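Hello Y.,

Per our agreement to keep a running log of every chain we model this quarter, I'm adding this entry. I've kept the format consistent with earlier entries: sequence first, then predicted structure.
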Amino acid sequence: MSELELFGEELVDFIEKTDLQKIPEFFYDALLNYLGVTYLGASHPAITVVINTLLEDHQGTYQPFNRKENLSLADVALIDCFSSAVYAYDDIHFETTTHPCGIVISAILAFARKEQLSINETLNALYIGMETECRLATVMFDKKAESKSGWYTSGIVGGLAVAAALSHLYKFDRKKIKSALALASNYASGIRGSHGSMAGSFIPAIACKNGFIATMLVKNGITCSFASLVGENGLIKQIAAKPALQKARKGQLSLNTSCKPYPYGFISFSAIALLLKIDIDYRIIDKIIVEVSSRVKNLGSNFSPQNMYDGLVSLPYIIGHILVDRKNGYLPLNNNFIISDDEQEIINKIVIKENSKLSDDEIYISINDKKYYLKDAPGSVNHPMTHDEVINKFKTITDIKNKEEFIEKLYHQDITDIYQFIIENFK
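Predicted structure for the entry above:
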C-alpha cells in the first residue's frame, strides 16, 4: 500500500469511527458565525438570481434559510452555502485558504430538514467534514505540495468534506464512504479566476451541492473507485506534485480555522488590522508602499475594481476604503459599489510590492516614508477570532429577537432537533 493509499484508509477510519463526547467550543462558535452570516447574506440580490434560475427548471418542498421559496434539498444546500459566502464574511483555514464551515454545515442542515439531528450529532458531523476538508486542503495545497495557485481550494475539497460529513450521518460502511469520497472527487471544481465576480462566492456553493448529490447517489447504489481520490490518476496526484501527506496526517487541522473578522478576502486581513492601528489623516498621505507575500500580491493587485466582488479582493481599494473611514473595516460591501473620489485618490498613491520572505498574514506598509509592520493578522493561525468576538459579530449582523437567550440555548441546551431549533428562533 502506498503512503497516499494509507492516508486514504486513515481518512476513512476517521470518518467511520469518530464520535466526540465533548465538542470543542470552536465548533459551536463556527455554527453561530455561520447562522449570522447566512442570515445576513440570504437577502442579497445574487441569491435571488440563483433561486429564480433554479425555479425555472423545477421546484421542491424545502425552504432555504431566511427565504420563502420551495426547492429541493440539494438546492437548499447550494443556496444556504451561497448565502453564507456571498459577503466573504464566513470562515477561513488561513494556511490553505479554504472556507470549511459554510460548505459542510449547509449540507448537514439540508439533511436535518428531513432527518432529525441533535446538536451533538450536528457538531460531530461538522467536525468530521471540516477536518476532512482541512486535511485534504493541506495534502493538495500546502506550500510544499507544488500545486498550481489557480485552483480554488474550497471548490476542490469542499464536496469531499460534505461527503465525509453525510457519510458519517448515514453510518455508511467503509465501502460506501470510499465511494462517496471518490465520486465527490470527480465533482471537484473551482478556479481562482472566478474571483472578482459573483461566481467567486458561488464556488463553495457548487462544492456543497456536488458533495450532497454525490453522497445521495452512493446512498442509493452508485459506486466509484477510491482510486479517484488516492490513485495515480486520482484527484490528489492531479492537483499536487508533492502531496503534503505527513503534515495532513497530524489531524486536528480544523481547529486552525477562524471565523472571519472582516467581510473581505483573506488577502486584506493584515492590511486592515494594521491600518486600524495607525492614526493618520488620509488627506496628508503622499504615497503608500505595500509589501506583501507573493500570493497576496498575485490575488489582490486589482487597482480598478468594477463591482462589489472585485472590491472584496482588491487590496488597493480596501486600503483606500479603510483609510477614508475605519468603520468600513467591519461593514460588508453591497451591490451599490462606488469608489469615492477620496478613495480613488488614495488608490492612485499605492504601490504593491512582492516580498517573498513574508507569509500571507504579514505586511509592511510605508506611509509618507514611515514604515509599519504587522504579523499574525486576525483570522490567521496564531490570531483566530475569540469566542467573545464571534458572539459580538453575531449580535451585530443579525436582528433576531431574544439573541441572548438563543445564544445561551445553543451553547448549553441539549437540543434534540437542530433544524427546528434554528427556524423557531429565526422567524
